[in-house]
């Protein structure tokens, strides 16, 4: 049923002619047509209006040609649905006016009925599926509970999420209650996304690498594992952890269909640490898309040779940067499509 099923094949570990390719954060940011919509509608209006979310999701498919679409939305719709105010300030990024930093704060956080609070996401999925007409699979996503806690406690982006860590280490009881509430909401949310039609889900643990390996188990991984356990029989799950190479062994035994890795780990080491069998996704340095297209193409070939064409999904090691020239993004995708081992 899905015409281009390269991604699904790679997730099942089946042999492919060339690896599938998509780019984290491919919907929006660097695309001129997205910038035009951005002038007219604020961020959460774009997320909440299924017609706009659909248009933005499909844009890179038509203009760049990756093998999968990722729904335009944000990981922060989850805290929003849990009774935590979240704004997106132009030039600043996420802004939470009332960060959660006490047990009293945690007690005010809801585990909502996702159909009441997030129906607009499920409507956007249905509309996007229609628009895509089964050309490529649609990826749904959520942030990891730890990454969501980072914003919920810090109140904004940060280089080190020091306040989030301080909260976890001074008030672990409250932190674990909050993490469990986020986990429960995320499981219900992702199940509803699958019911609405997404073909794959990805968990973004963008700030997992802020934690020591021991704290990673305690404050991030055990909650990721709960989500994978709840979803893995319904849908392939990709677990992406930025800076989490130290956890690849544990992650490879989790039931996730694939693991996302960033550019600080060599393909060879990622294969070694993850046991050599599980599908890996990554890991081009997003800043390398500033290089000229000819160099991008050379480096992409090298990357595929190092990972191997099978059990592999070509991607960046983190989200695409906002000022990447469109032709460089296209060179990345084309290089994978032209790959002939
Ligand atoms: O391909 C896609 O873009 C799909 C949609 C998507 C967005 N955010 C749209 C968005 C996805 C998958 C995300 C995930 C996300 N959001 C993560 C995890 C992935 C990662 O990059 O680490 C995180 C940490 C966030 C939180 C967030 N949202 C930040 C830090 C920012 C501001 C800075 C930035 O990246 O531009 C956002 C805003 C946001 N989310 C934008 C987009 C396209 C840009 C703002 C805008 O369009 O007005």
From TrEMBL:
The keyword Lyase applies. GO terms for molecular function: uroporphyrinogen decarboxylase activity. The record marks 74 as: Transition state stabilizer. Keywords: Cytoplasm, Decarboxylase, Lyase, Porphyrin biosynthesis. It is found in: Cytoplasm. Pathway: Porphyrin-containing compound metabolism; protoporphyrin-IX biosynthesis; coproporphyrinogen-III from 5-aminolevulinate: step 4/4. SUPFAM superfamilies: UROD/MetE-like. The keyword Protease does not apply. It comes from the Bacteria. Catalyzes the decarboxylation of four acetate groups of uroporphyrinogen-III to yield coproporphyrinogen-III. Homodimer. HAMAP family: URO_D. This is Uroporphyrinogen decarboxylase. It comes from Autumnicola patrickiae. The gene is hemE.
